[in-house]
Amino acid sequence: MTAESAFSLLNTIALAGWILLAVLPGRRWVTDIVTSVAIPALLAMVYVALIVSTFGRAEGSFSSLAGVSSLFREPWVLLAGWAHYLAFDMLIGNWEVRDSRARGIPHLLVVPCLVLTFLFGPAGWLLYTGVRTLRTKN
Asked: What per-residue confidence (pLDDT) applies to 138?
């Protein structure tokens, strides 16, 4: 398998989880198993496997922006970074759905937050935090 084909596979798996969060938010198996454990755990295992298998092979470091740029020139290290983002963004999306359900926030207000979290991580969390603040003040 190439890094490119692994990238496509990971994206497809993550997208399936995001669709479930958007379409079936009230199903406990979605929020309690699939998007809180199964998919993030799979992505985490891929991440760990990639880090272990590439450790020491790629030049660079985390001590400077130039060092990080150098690390990510290695496609498998870059894929590890992508798996890291996919896993953590999904955990945040899962939290948004669970938190909104607990606070009685209408899911239609959460869907744009989920889309933004999927595409731009922290920006989606920030939007959800704003929605949550506005909805819980009233």
From this structure: 65
- Provide the pLDDT confidence category of residue 119 given band limits of 50, 70 and 90: very high
Provide the number of structural domains found in the chain. 1
Residue type, 33: I
Three-state DSSP state, 57: coil
Residue 114 main-chain phi, psi, to 5 deg = -65, -45
Burial class of residue 97, CB neighbours in 10 A (0-12, 13-18, 19+): buried
Q: What is the pTM of this model?
A: 0.91
DSSP code at position 35: I
Provide the CA 5 distance to its chain's centre, in angstroms.
19
| Contacts by residues 13-19 (CB-CB < 8 Å, ≥ 24 positions apart) | 13/39, 13/42, 13/43, 14/39, 14/43, 14/86, 14/89, 14/90, 14/118, 15/118, 17/90, 17/93, 18/90, 18/93, 18/114, 18/118
Give the range of the structural domain holding residue 42, as residue numbers without chain letter. 3-137
